[in-house]
Amino acid sequence: MSLKIQLASLIGRHIRVRPARLAGHRPVASISFDDFPKSAWTGGGPVLARHGVRGTYYTGGGFCGRTVEGTRFYEAQDLTELAAAGHEIGCHGFAHQPVSELSPAELAQDAQRNRDFLKAFLKGEAPVSYAYPFGRVSPGAKQFQAPRFSSLRGTHEGVNAGRVDLAQLNVISLETRLWNKDRIEAAIHRALHDHGWLILYTHGVSDSPGAYDSSPQMLDWALGKVAAARIEILPVRDALPVALGN
Ligand SMILES: [Zn+2]
């Protein structure tokens, strides 16, 4: 990553493009999957079903039906199934490039391509939730994407509470590379205490998880802890009004 791009991401992070105050009457949580590997649905879907929870699948259109560097990604049928089961299809970059490296014209083209691809699975509607590929931003990219979605999510660690930027919401990772039960439990307590919005995220869900994935047991444990704290888990699109207190 060049210094210029790192700097753009750092500056972008500190510019609140859509500042808001979360004033929920209760805490709320979401579970999200990025990209997404097929196992997020075939392995993660059954865990969600067991907990009676619906998630958000931030989908990169360019991954559909492909195997990239040993990871098998979702197929069109998976999108049809998960939408039918009430899960949310969110938007990720089509070609999964960091937005900070794209020109405004390339950004517009990639965004349009992903929306066009996803519309077929959304009864012609546009997706309302977005996650930045690699969590990377730039001031220009945030300003470009923000008006197109009701919320946008990055990958910075934290519970969303009080003053937030709806153009770059924080997450708590369930990936093996960052797995830390104490930190997840602390985040749940913070969400409870501050009526915050806890957005969990990972990629694939399998018995042999890679660094960016979780095992079914990890996902099950985290959802169980959130449920034990009596925090409702909703897709991002449905959690947003609860978090805002609307
Ligand atoms: Zn991604």
Question: What would your notes on this structure say?
Answer:
- The protein is an alpha/beta fold and 246 residues long.
- The protein has a single domain (3-244), classed as Glycoside hydrolase/deacetylase (TIM Barrel, Alpha-Beta Barrel).
- It has nine helices and twelve strands.
- It has helices at 3-14, 39-42, 44-51, 76-84, 104-119, 139-145, 181-194, 216-228, 236-244, and strands at residues 19-21, 28-35, 56-59, 67-68, 71-72, 88-91, 129-131, 151-157, 163-165, 169-173, 197-202, 232-233.
- Strands 2, 3, 6, 7, 8, 10, 11 and 12 form an eight-stranded parallel β-sheet that branches. Strands 1-9 form a two-stranded antiparallel ribbon.
- The chain is globular and about 45 Å long.
- The chain starts with a helix and ends with a helix.
- The mean pLDDT is 94.
- The chain binds zinc ion (ZN).
- Residues 34-35, 92, 96, 133 line the site of zinc ion (ZN).
- Residues 34-35, 92, 96, 133 line the site of zinc ion.
Topology (SSEs and partners):
Blueprint: H1 3-14, E1 19-21, E2 28-35, H2 39-42, H3 44-51, E3 56-59, E4 67-68, E5 71-72, H4 76-84, E6 88-91, H5 104-119, E7 129-131, H6 139-145, E8 151-157, E9 163-165, E10 169-173, H7 181-194, E11 197-202, H8 216-228, E12 232-233, H9 236-244
Parallel strand pairs: 2-3, 2-11, 2-12, 3-6, 7-8, 8-10, 10-11
Antiparallel strand pairs: 1-9, 4-5
Helix pairs in contact: 1-6, 3-8, 5-6
The structure holds zinc ion.
Zinc ion binds at residues 34-35, 92, 96, 133.
